[in-house]
Amino acid sequence: MIRHHPTLETLLAHAAGTLADGPAVVVEAHAQGCPQCRATLDALDATGGQLLGELSPAPLEPATFERVLARLDVSPAVRPSPPRQASLALPQGTRLPAALRNAQIGRWFWVAPGVRYSRVRLPWAPAQNLMLLRVGGGRRVPHHSHGGMELTQVLWGGFRDGDDRYGPGDLGEADETTAHQPLADPEGCICLASLEGGLRLPWLTRLLGK
Ligand SMILES: [Zn+2]
């Protein structure tokens, strides 16, 4: 049962195409497994399409039209290459979301005791900060806050964040006002996370004496 969903604000931004590519992939991964959010997004798409249909069509400048055609021409060349699916040794039965099918997924790197990270690169938006996180049973993610929005979709296992518990299919949303230190369930967890504005790690800042 899914208990945590993206906020309506985030779903609206996704439907309007104004969400950055990293968070958009996380919201897609969530919606692929959440009939409730899928239905909301479909309804928003239908509404948006209707609104567009009601606007009087403005004639397209010939130059604009040519630019659009030119972009269509180049698209096959910039189409992402097939994913380089590293051996992530995921627990049996764990499937990466279809939203990651064109992403390039690196190998696991150690980031903190019990915490490993794998960079997820979107060939069409390589600057996006998207990652898989694997947290060992009973381990905590280092205490941190964010410079922007953080979306975390649980793929396997679960974690606690304050009084809230997140299980498979749940999406956690945090922003620059949130400082937290999620705690993995006894079996651990694997999440897909997008991060905007970087991570603020007070313990690291203290360590570096900055
Ligand atoms: Zn949902």
TrEMBL record:
SUPFAM superfamilies, sorted: RmlC-like cupins (SSF51182)
Matches recorded under CDD domains: cupin_ChrR
The ChrR-like cupin domain, residue ranges: 107-193
One family name in Pfam for this protein: Cupin_7
InterPro entries: Anti-sigma_ChrR, Anti_sigma_zinc_sf, ChrR-like_cupin_dom, RmlC-like_jellyroll, RmlC_Cupin_sf
Protein known as: ChrR-like anti-ECFsigma factor
Originating species: Gluconacetobacter liquefaciens
